[in-house]
Amino acid sequence: PYPKVWQAAMSDPAVERVGREGEILYVGPAQSNESIRHQIDLYHRTLEANGHDKPEDMVIVREFYCAPTREEALARAQANFATKYEVYAQHGLHGTDGELTRKVTGDLETLMDDTFLVGGPEECIEQIAAYHQMGFTDVAIRLFYPEMSQSEVLEHIDLVGKEVIPALHTL
């Protein structure tokens, strides 16, 4: 009867707010898988406590970089993510989750290993499949970053469109 509303949440209080309101959870880009599992459980408990059914959808956004090999993806991702996360560090990230704040404003290597979708096509498919297994129905990814040339953007879109997206339809 009305458009679906995705409410973003990166901390437990925000997840509880989404659950109280009975809206669709939109998980942010920097939580670890352990934190996400905890927050999904918290979300489901809060929905139930407030008389809401579980929405059919659950959404996650992740930084994403796919290249023909993992090594190439890591090198390109490092260069392209650095500017974005340097700006976060300059401005700070205010919130209630100290660990998350340190991660988003700290070591990019940790984020690339723990939370970002980075690798060759098969690795990216496996990483997205893991989120599907957690219950996510939608994964929002970025295919270009300010530091990328037009040819890099087009190559990235082409690789993802030919090798990653078709495989996701079989999940």
Name the descriptors:
single chain, 171 residues, TIM Barrel, 4-stranded parallel β-sheet, 57% helix
Name the overall outline.
Answer: globular
Number of continuous helical runs: 7
Q: H/E order of the elements?
A: EHEHEEHHHEHEH
The CATH superfamily is Luciferase-like domain
- Residue stretches low in confidence (pLDDT < 50, at least 5 long) are none
What is the CATH first-level class name?
A: Alpha Beta
Q: Which fold name fills CATH's third level, the topology?
A: TIM Barrel
Describe the biggest sheet? 4 strands, parallel
Mean pLDDT figure: 88
What CATH architecture label applies? Alpha-Beta Barrel
Number of strands: 6
Order of strands in the sheet with the most strands? 1-2-3-6
Helix content: 55-70%
Query: What's the Cα radius of gyration?
Result: 17 Å
Beginning-to-end CA distance, first to last residue: 29 Å
Task: Write down the domain tally.
Answer: 1
Q: What fraction of the residues are assigned to beta strands by DSSP?
A: 5-15%
Broad structural category: alpha/beta
Structure description:
The structure is a single chain. The protein is α/β, with parallel strands linked by helices and about 170 residues long. It has one domain (about 1-170): Luciferase-like domain (TIM Barrel). Helices cover about 55% and strands about 15% of the residues. The chain has helices at about 10-20, 35-50, 70-90, 100-105, 110-115, 120-135, 150-170; strands at about 5-10, 25, 60, 65, 115-120, 140. The strands form two sheets. A four-stranded parallel beta sheet has the order 1-2-3-6, with helices on one face. The protein has a two-stranded parallel ribbon with strand order 4-5. α1 links the parallel β1 (about 5-10) and β2. α1 packs parallel to α2 (about 35-50) and α6 (about 120-135) packs across α7 (about 150-170). The protein is globular and about 50 Å long.
